[in-house]
């Protein structure tokens, strides 16, 4: 890829400068080569740069559970509406099933998702007055495993 930028020279403007980037440095030795040449009022800079490799041992991001806790304050209707509003992947029947499980056991998994999304859901449900928390999927103990799968939206 060699983008070049140049403009015509007029008496009131500076000399033309052409910048070029090249990835044909030969071998990809991990360094940067810089070359500069001048020709008749033109200046050219060529920078060879090797592409950084991604770390192969990159840790896979783990899934988190969004957990609803029984609070004896909110009605089933309010909880069901809040769940469907905040977690758009839930339908009313699934939200009702989560309410029933929470009422019977004391807590239930709403969904499993990435940490950032779980935190967002948690805060939004807390704003609705619900008692919710998040926990890493691998460390979750008890309360039912009703999370049907990851929500990656």
TrEMBL record:
<dbReference type="GO" id="GO:0006508">
    <property type="term" value="P:proteolysis"/>
</dbReference>
<dbReference type="Pfam" id="PF02617">
    <property type="entry name" value="ClpS"/>
</dbReference>
<dbReference type="InterPro" id="IPR003769">
    <property type="entry name" value="ClpS_core"/>
</dbReference>
<dbReference type="InterPro" id="IPR014719">
    <property type="entry name" value="Ribosomal_bL12_C/ClpS-like"/>
</dbReference>
<dbReference type="InterPro" id="IPR022935">
    <property type="entry name" value="ClpS"/>
</dbReference>
<protein>
    <recommendedName>
        <fullName>Adaptor protein ClpS core domain-containing protein</fullName>
    </recommendedName>
</protein>
<feature type="region of interest" description="Disordered">
    <location>
        <begin position="1"/>
        <end position="42"/>
    </location>
</feature>
<feature type="domain" description="Adaptor protein ClpS core">
    <location>
        <begin position="59"/>
        <end position="132"/>
    </location>
</feature>
<dbReference type="GO" id="GO:0030163">
    <property type="term" value="P:protein catabolic process"/>
</dbReference>
């Amino acid at each position: 890829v060699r983008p070049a930028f140049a403009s015509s020279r007029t008496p009131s403007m500076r000399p033309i400068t052409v910048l070029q980037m090249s990835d044909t440095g030969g071998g990809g030795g991990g360094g940067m080569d810089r070359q500069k040449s001048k020709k008749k009022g033109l200046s050219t800079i060529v920078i060879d740069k090797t592409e950084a490799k991604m770390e192969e041992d990159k840790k896979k991001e783990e899934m988190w559970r969004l957990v609803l806790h029984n609070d004896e304050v909110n009605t089933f209707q309010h909880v069901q509406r809040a769940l469907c509003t905040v977690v758009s992947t839930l339908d009313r029947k699934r939200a009702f099933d989560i309410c029933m499980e929470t009422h019977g056991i004391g807590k239930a998994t709403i969904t499993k998702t990435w940490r950032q999304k779980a935190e967002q859901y948690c805060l939004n449900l807390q704003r609705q007055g619900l008692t919710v928390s998040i926990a890493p999927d691998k460390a979750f103990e008890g309360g039912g495993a009703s999370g049907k799968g990851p929500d990656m939206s």
